[in-house]
Amino acid sequence: MLTLEPYEPKGIKPFVFHGSTSNIGRLKEHPNAVLKYYKEAWWDLSKPMNDARRSLYRSRFQVEETILRHLGDHPRVVNTTANPYGIWLVEAPNGDLQQYLEEHGNTIDDSQRCKWCIQAAEAVSYIHSKGVLHCDLRPANCLLDKNLDLVLCDFGGSRFGKLSGKGLPDSGFFNPNDKGPPSEAMDVFGLGSLLYVIMTGRLPHESLIQSMANYDIVVNQLFGKRQFPQVEHIKHGQTILGCWEGKFGMAADVVQSLKQEQGLLGHQ
């Protein structure tokens, strides 16, 4: 298969993140932002490159740029501006949620975790109100700003009307019984798993396996049988289970449930 030489923008500083198709790095002249750029220069038509791969890169770049422009400025969505060869993102100095949970899990109190739960649900509720499906909810796609507030990112695989990045959630964040196209219900199911990871620091059913190499098979089998992790002892466990069992019609209902469990709403 023909591919391009790895692409790296001039002046890029140490990497912040390595992804499957893109990297995130810093540039000296933009100290408060990072550049998300693709590993290969798909726009350079003079270079040999597999057509399918070029098409994937182009599509995901255009999908993410269009969706972020459509979503606009919102405290729960990463702020951005376009760049010819990538996308400028306002830097989140505390990194992504997955990394933060792994590095600081023992020091994170319940109040912080509960705040993140509400913020994650608010993010999904907002993008759904704008007609956007994320399609890949997981802790690595949530960033933490300087105040440890959560912002949702990575819309390259998302859907907006006829625009599709053709993304699907990872195992553990996906209902294997859902055979239809991406939907709000799919995102709400994934939101339940995201809330579970926030509150426990573990993937759903992670404690049942000895090797992560087997995780996809095990969790898909259990979720396919509607066998979900025990959540009775977990704060927000009933909301998490409700997401998995399809009891919430929309993400806004999840926000309300979380706030009610935290006593932020009056008794109804």
UniProtKB/TrEMBL annotation:
Record PROSITE patterns: PROTEIN_KINASE_DOM, PROTEIN_KINASE_TYR
Catalyzed reactions per annotation: L-seryl-[protein] + ATP = O-phospho-L-seryl-[protein] + ADP + H(+); L-threonyl-[protein] + ATP = O-phospho-L-threonyl-[protein] + ADP + H(+)
UniProt EC number: 2.7.11.1
InterPro entries, A to Z: Kinase-like_dom_sf (IPR011009), Prot_kinase_dom (IPR000719), Ser/Thr_Kinases-Pseudokinases (IPR051681), Tyr_kinase_AS (IPR008266)
Record keyword Transferase present: yes
UniProt keywords, alphabetically: Kinase, Transferase
Every Protein kinase domain range: 10-268
Keyword match Transit peptide: no
Record GO terms (molecular function): ATP binding; protein serine/threonine kinase activity
Self-association state and partner proteins as the record states: Component of the EKC/KEOPS complex composed of at least BUD32, CGI121, GON7, KAE1 and PCC1; the whole complex dimerizes.
Function: Component of the EKC/KEOPS complex that is required for the formation of a threonylcarbamoyl group on adenosine at position 37 (t(6)A37) in tRNAs that read codons beginning with adenine. The complex is probably involved in the transfer of the threonylcarbamoyl moiety of threonylcarbamoyl-AMP (TC-AMP) to the N6 group of A37. BUD32 has ATPase activity in the context of the EKC/KEOPS complex and likely plays a supporting role to the catalytic subunit KAE1. The EKC/KEOPS complex also promotes both telomere uncapping and telomere elongation.
Listed PANTHER family: SERINE/THREONINE-PROTEIN KINASE TNNI3K-RELATED
Protein name: EKC/KEOPS complex subunit BUD32
Organism annotation: Zopfia rhizophila CBS 207.26
